[in-house]
Design goal:
The chain is of the alpha/beta class and 707 residues long. It contains 20 helices and 25 strands. It is 35% helix and 19% strand. Strand 20 and strand 21 form a beta hairpin. The termini are far apart.
Length: 707
Amino acid sequence: MNSWDELLHKLGIAKSFSDAAHQYQPHEVRDEVLLRMVNYLGFPLKNIEQSEQLLQKLQRKRWQSVAESIYVVRQQNKEFDIILPEDDIENVEIQISCLGKNINAEYEQKIVEECQKGSCLYKRLKIKILTDLEPQYYDIEITVKNRKFQTILAVTPDECYIPEVLSKRRIWGFAIQLYSLASKRNWGVGDFTDLRNFVKMCAQNGADVIGVNPLNVLFHDYPENASPYSSISRLFLNPIYIDVEQVAGYEPSMLDGKKQILDAVRRAKDIDYTAVYQLKTDILRQIYDKFISDKKSVLYEEFEKFCAQKGADLQNLAVYQAIYSEYKDKVYGGWRAWPEEFRQPHSGAVANFAGSHVKEIGFFKYLQFVAFMQLQDVCAEIERQGLAVGLYQDLPVGLCKDSVELWANNDLFIKDCGAGAPPDVFFPKGQKWCLGAFNPYTLKAAGYQPFIKILRAAMRGSGALRIDHVMSLMRLYIIPDCDEDGTYIYYNFDDMLGLVVLESYLNKCMVVGESIGNVPDGFIEKIHERGIYSLSVLWAERWNGQGDFKAPCDFPKRAFCSVGTHDMAPLKMRWFGYDIETMYQLKMISENERCNQYKGREDERCKLLQALDCACVWPKDKPRQGDCLFGEGYPNGILEAVEKYVSSCQCDVYLVQLEDIFGVTQLQNLPGTDRDKHPNWRRKLPVKLEDYQCNEDFIRSVEAIKR
């Protein structure tokens, strides 16, 4: 291996990779792209010929500090290393503490490596802790003579938290897009009260889990940027989900002069995000003005406690939103185009701005306070109703690059790049998501604290957490902003995986990994070994990818299964192939690809009907009549047959999508498009929430699943 290849291997930059679209076709990455990646990760390199010098520098780096920032270890193997001059070896003391309490722990040490640096010989000691320690974060203080050094030991259990109920029975629930819930009372978009009412409905029907789209905060000034997977912060909530009428201080008279707008957003076929958000924030500003006039109220004291608890992260969000509003009409290009003095959150200019915009910044904090309180009410309802798992939240793989997370901690993210995906069976041309992605090196230097914080925020109040594109714990496909070709950047998989397991244990929240796409060999087995569930989708559960559908007994057990996902066509749409036609009309596929996909869909329909026949899942009062193989009709009873087929598999959890139940023939999201081509994230469900339990399709689907 030459020094260039060795450097790439050392840095975790893939020189080649296989896609998952064409029998795992290999791709060689251009040296130009690879050289950029080295620099983007924070390692200056002018040309490939200088690889040897950088490689030697990296190999010396570990010998330049006593301890690493954090060590992630398993409970039965609690080891970490420290590096000291030979003369200091006999003067080492280790003190372990947890949550402020010292622990009298036994340990042993041995020399495992040495390195000569000038006239001094340095040695690497492996410290093995012999005392049993519960899964938790431990502060390690290393004393060498009169000098003290700090590190963290994250002791992880073998497996994630798994609810006891899953050892006794399989459970089911719904996967919903909260914004899409239409009701007779909401203001044109699904809200937290709708979710709370849906919880009661789930309990009445025997459902134990509710999967929701990411609920994270989006752009205050650009509500039409509605993708829940492109938030400005994964630590906070989207205020559009607030039920304004349930906010303390709301009065019906506040709607005077706005009822026509309210009627219009309720009647709109798709969600009018600008009108809905503007209406809600206008009323919330009126409530806020009253709220801050009485700073001695009990509620205001709760607000202050909330702000103190959320600390610098909430302050950064609110200041960022206030500055963004100030400059949205003055500059184009987001925070990177702001005056230079505002591009750093800790600058004097930002402090002065915050001091002169206290009320506006307070309003943004207030929005988070109200949203948090209403989501807490949902969680309390889940507990009252006794749902076994309850809320199943979704953690996006990345976030909008023009976000407060990147503004506040820009060094934590890979520069001038965005996360995406290479070609796979669902997206043959790959995907350029343009999402901000953690730099594995600066993230480790920060003790993984930013990653831990977003895990905790997503797990709070949840019984399960879906990690979007869970392969990112191991590797993430990164594409330079200036290019269409990218490559994989590797993370410290053992560390990332261990922290997920530990946070799952501490928060009593099971973890599900979205693993559809280009999955590395052995990856699924590895996450299963640590107690992370995978996703099982009917359309992907086929032998050799395109063969017969697997029988229910051949589905994986530790999985959340469903017919499709929010990125896939609902059952009825897929049957007729409307998704293929949509992509063709948008010029996303050629005439030849269109024909090939239609042929593939005919084969899929045939194999699906065969599988349903073999499983004997057709409803007795709606037996199959005709094949409809060419999409000329929708087979009688197919919805119930498919629901029964998938829900009878051995997966521990089954999730049904309302779009399938209500026969929706439009996509919630068409990857690779923006709203100028397709109304992504804007579809309302065709049935009002209040009418679900008298809807025949809903009743029959639920009964089929329960049987």
